[in-house]
Every structure is written in C-alpha cells, then in structure tokens.
Amino acid sequence: MRNILTGIILIFSITTLVAQNTPCACCTEAHSEFDFWLGNWDVTLPNGAKAGENTIAKEHGGCVLKESWTSANGNFTGTSFNFYNTKTEQWEQLWLDVAGTILKLKGKRVNNQMILRSDPAPQEDGTSLVQQISYTLNEDGSIRQLWEVLKDEVSVSVLFDGLYKKKI
Predict the structure, then answer these.
(1) Fold of the CATH domain 27-166
(2) Strand runs (DSSP E) across the chain, as ranges?
(3) Domain positions in the chain
C-alpha cells in the first residue's frame, strides 16, 4: 500500500513539474487575434431593440474562446467554440444552438475584422451559398456582428446585424 501511495505521489509530482515547465501552447499572437470579442456584452439590433446578451470567455488554457448567447426573451440560447487552427493558420468556429442549428465557419482577421465563412452549400439551381459572419471592432470598443448569406461573393440576405456594447 505504501509503495502504491509513493508511486501516486511521484507521478503527481512529475506531472505537475512537466505542466509548470511546458510553454503555453496558445499564447501566440495569432491565438490573440480574436481577443477583442472577449467580455460580457449587451447586443442590440439596428433599430435599437435589445437582441440579447453574450459572454465570450477564454477556456482551456486560452486555446478556446467560448461564446454563450441568450436572446432578449431568454428562449433562444446558443454556444460557439472558436479556436485558432495552427495547421491551417485559420480561425474556426463551431456554433450550436437550442434550435439544433450547427454552423461551421473558418477564416482570418483582416485589419479590425474577424471574417469567418462556411463552406459553399450547393443549391438546387446549381449555385452555391456561403454564410459569412464578420465581427468588426469599432473605434469606441463596440463590435458589429454581421451575418450574411453570400451568392457569388455578393450579399443576398442578412440573417443578423447586432451591435455589441460591453456591460458596465
């Protein structure tokens, strides 16, 4: 019994030592490109009506940005997991919500915007549609989230247009 206890303590000590000496896997500049979205937000529509509330937090050693969305009436919730993929050198987002929606996006930061797109979805008429969500950091610290459907690189509809303002 004493040998088992000594072994467990030794393994725990080695694991702790290795963890303390391991460099932060997600502490690169690329992993911080979406940090402007971190925080607790009130979100409004273009007409000023409250759309909902959103909390964005870093998890898993800073490797994942987790979004927790709740609509203004509280009936619609969703979560996204956002991460920088070092192999593809792109950001990826997986959105899941109470309606069963699954949306997979990928993209990059361009200046003050994070622009994420879905793969093209073939339509019955032979065309393809792409969903694009752009997060634009405004000079005042607010963020505009614009979710569009694109056909041939042209916006054919807006699914969501929200202004994020940090909660005080």
Answers:
(1) Lipocalin (2.40.128)
(2) 39-44, 50-59, 64-71, 77-85, 90-97, 102-110, 113-117, 121-122, 128-137, 143-151, 154-166
(3) 27-166
